Amino acid sequence: MSVLEIKNLHVSIEDKEILKGVNLTMNSGEIHAIMGPNGTGKSTLSAAIMGNPNYEVTEGEVLLDGENILELEVDERARAGIFLAMQYPSEIPGITNAEFMRAAINAKRDEDDKISVMDFIKKLDEKMAILDMPEEMAERYLNEGFSGGEKKRNEILQLMMMEPTFAILDEIDSGLDIDALKVVSQGVNEMRGDNFGALIITHYQRLLNYITPDVVHVMMDGRVVKTGGADLAKRLESEGYAGISKELGIELIEE
Predict the structure, then answer these.
(1) CB-based contact 169:213 (threshold 8 Å)
(2) What are φ and ψ of residue 112, in 5° steps?
(3) Alpha-carbon gap, residue 180 to 176, rounded angstroms
(4) Which Gene3D superfamilies match (predicted)?
(5) Can you say whether the dihedral through the CA atoms of 185, 189, 191, 195 is positive or negative?
(6) What are the E-state strand segments in the chain?
(7) Terminal Cα-to-Cα distance of the chain (whole angstroms)
(8) Residues sharing a CB contact under 8 Å with residue 249, sequence separation 6 or more, in sequence order
(9) DSSP state at residue 37
């Protein structure tokens, strides 16, 4: 079992503090969801964990099995087993999906243990079938000209191919119709197991109807203010964040 610990994490953007002491612990084998109003720091948390240079960590630690990954470069964090599915994936012309994923898989392997072409193609075909993706998607340039739904499916395809220890899924449901949402959720559920954990950032209960979380965290004003089970997300759906903020005596500020 692996453990990802976020301890007293403070993060600023251009001298404005966004995260104000986030504490959260998750184990592999668990699915955690983070919910909260706009502007509360959910996406900032994902960016800081992965090492986006636009976000300055001013205090705190992010520990993967006891090692502070904040001291690692972005590629080193990925090789250590952290994966980020971004809300707005970048387009990279000139490199195909297949080329990118094979290179990413091999980057985590020793020189004498690279994945063979045949094994890669077999695995790719299996995962694309689960996500109902046409074969030609593998040969298209990475995210170039993709629709929003195609980009989200492609992020989940990368997740399934790379098999990280922990995945951070930043609003993977954004802009998806119900059919695409079901397919993307199926891909995440295929990953569930003792050696995989996910931190899902979302605004809506509808995603959690298909990916049932073990733990739900509510973020407000740069902190985790309440933690509970899957029923907490359903409560948010019915009451909104106003009910939680009133219960905790927190002023609800949406940006």
Answers:
(1) no
(2) -90, 15
(3) 6
(4) P-loop containing nucleotide triphosphate hydrolases
(5) positive
(6) 3-13, 16-27, 31-35, 56-64, 67-68, 82-85, 92-96, 141-142, 166-170, 197-201, 215-220, 223-228
(7) 38
(8) none
(9) -
65 CB burial (10 A radius; 0-12, 13-18, 19+): middle
Question: For residue range 223-233, what is the model confidence (pLDDT) as tens digits?
Answer: 999 999 999 98
| 3-90+166-248 to CATH, choices 3.30.390.50, 3.40.50.300, 3.90.1150.10, 3.30.300.30 | 3.40.50.300
Asked if 207 contacts 181 with a C-beta cutoff of 8 angstroms, the reply is: yes
Q: Taking each helix axis as running N to C, give the angle between helix 97-107 and helix 148-162, from 0 to 180 degrees, rounded to the nearest 10.
A: 30
Could you tell me how many helices (H) and strands (E) the chain has, helices first? 8, 12
Parse the chain into domains and list their residue ranges.
3-90+166-248
Angle between the N-to-C axes of helices 97-107 and 117-130, in degrees from 0 to 180, rounded to the nearest 10: 120
Per-residue pLDDT band at 217 (split at 50, 70, 90): very high
Residue 156 vs residues 54, 78, 126: alpha-carbon distances, Å? 25, 15, 13
Model confidence, pTM: 0.90
- pLDDT tens-digit map of 86-117: 767 777 888 999 999 999 999 888 888 899 99
